[in-house]
């Protein structure tokens, strides 16, 4: 029996299928707070008390909702579209956003296809007539799909699933997707059209499966509709606004477009007097694309599992704003993440004039797949020690960008003779050179390695070579290389009651022939600032800094 304590609180802020909620409750390390139907104001008040929040499209996670994120670490969207989540605000606060992209693909494709069939056969108005007591067979002559040409706009998961179904119905399929760099798709069965405006006049039916953004908003408008065949049927089960609704109503009224099947609206729910609600040529559903028993079970379970996996450090699935971060690192990658964090801590105090470029060089095939995570680990330490706002793997790249700090990771799959290796180079802005700063001091370089014992080693700092395990309280001293320096430092430490547990010394000659040394002291207690001040003013000491690193338990 598990003895794990309940540590992660998961908030369900939308109506989710019971299966996902039951799964959360069955987990020994999770508690569920079901607040389906909560409004934004209430959500803002409680969201920070939870580690994760799961939503569908019924609630908006705005910047205001995320103003005091408290413990919140992950927002899981049980579904695909994340337009109800302020991604920039989540990223800025270091909150991971995940979705469950695969789980509702077939269901949504089926709904779009159902709208297509029903619109082509006028099922909606025919049903209404019958319900009202009528029986009009001549009025509702439909159109057959077989032999017609369908335009699929957005050839991602859902677009392709719709195309597959259209082909099975013996339709010709044309696709438009600017991110599809091919002449044809699906083994040559689908022709790819390069320009959306070329697609519209060629098709009898058109269906949209794109996200809503500045490029897709209003992409089908009156001007483009006027180039269409007059019998064009328009299906939108993607996002309201991709087809301009006002223009569509005009086009339907004026016979420019034959009919429309719509599942999504610019404002949901649409106003009571929205002209598409009761338009004789429109078949409308209230955003039901993903609403099947199967899809809702799947998205609910997938969202819950992704949220908890991230909180447990098991991995990131379906990340929307994580840019390649992994938490499921292999032992060697995890050891490098720890080493790089220590390396950044060690050179941090030497960076006195700001940061403009950070370069991480990774050698070794095993490190390549963790490159983004390792780069962000270095940045998180370098910036986290300097910024007031919380910095973590999610928000650190955006924070660096905001500050015009350039970050680059160079990976090489060729192992060095000594094995894998990480080199971190941090450069300050050139215009920061003043009389007290030598240009060489603007670049800080540290090299580390992890051997088979998985313990972190630093093998070089700014050209001083060594083999040192970075841990605990450390004092870094750069000094002139002359007799008496070690004794002098020892007596200052002794007078301050600080025991030196270990010492590493490395020497280096400058291009002018001046020899200096780097002394790294491992001490049993952190020095008071006044002790550091005292040692830094001793004759022959060029620089002094103290660093506190985590201890090492492994090995
Ligand atoms: N009605 C409903 O209940 C549901 C609606 N959706 C909507 O369906 C959309 C598609 O979902 P998936 O296929 O899973 O996403 P996806 O990311 O697999 O596919 C979207 C495709 O759109 C393409 N695209 C992007 N910009 C484009 C542009 N300007 N013109 C043409 N193509 C462009 C992308 O390259 C991509 O291939 C989602 O964005 C979501 O808004 C998703 C699930 C349920
Ligand atoms: O039913 C829902 O939650 C909305 C589905 C949807 O639009 C999506 O997953 O993007």
Descriptive tags:
555 residues; alpha/beta; Rossmann fold; 60s Ribosomal Protein L30, Chain: A; eight-stranded mixed sheet; binds 1,4-dihydronicotinamide adenine dinucleotide; binds 2-oxoglutaric acid
Largest sheet: 8 strands, mixed
CATH superfamily of the largest domain: NAD(P)-binding Rossmann-like Domain
Query: Whole-Å distance between the termini?
Result: 30 Å
CATH topology of the largest domain: Rossmann fold
Rg (C-alpha, Å): 31 Å
The spatial strand order of the largest sheet comes to 8-9-7-6-10-11-12-13
Any idea what the CATH architecture of the largest domain is? Answer: 3-Layer(aba) Sandwich
Break the fold down into its secondary structure elements and pairings.
Layout: E1 8-12, H1 18-26, E2 30-34, H2 40-46, E3 52-55, E4 74-77, H3 87-92, E5 96-99, H4 105-120, H5 123-131, E6 149-153, H6 157-168, E7 172-176, E8 184-185, E9 190-192, H7 196-199, E10 205-208, H8 222-225, E11 233-236, H9 245-253, E12 259-262, E13 282-284, H10 293-312, H11 331-347, E14 357-363, H12 371-384, H13 396-402, E15 406-412, E16 421-427, E17 443-450, E18 456-461, E19 464-468, E20 473-480, H14 485-495, E21 500-509, E22 515-523, H15 529-536, E23 541-548
Parallel strand pairs: 1-2, 1-3, 3-4, 4-5, 6-7, 6-10, 7-9, 10-11, 11-12, 12-13, 14-15
Antiparallel strand pairs: 8-9, 14-16, 16-17, 17-18, 18-19, 20-22, 20-23, 21-22
Helix pairs in contact: 1-10, 4-6, 11-12
This protein binds 1,4-dihydronicotinamide adenine dinucleotide and 2-oxoglutaric acid.
Residues 79-81, 101, 104-105, 108, 153-159, 176-179, 209-211, 215-216, 237-239, 263-264, 287, 289-290 line the site of 1,4-dihydronicotinamide adenine dinucleotide.
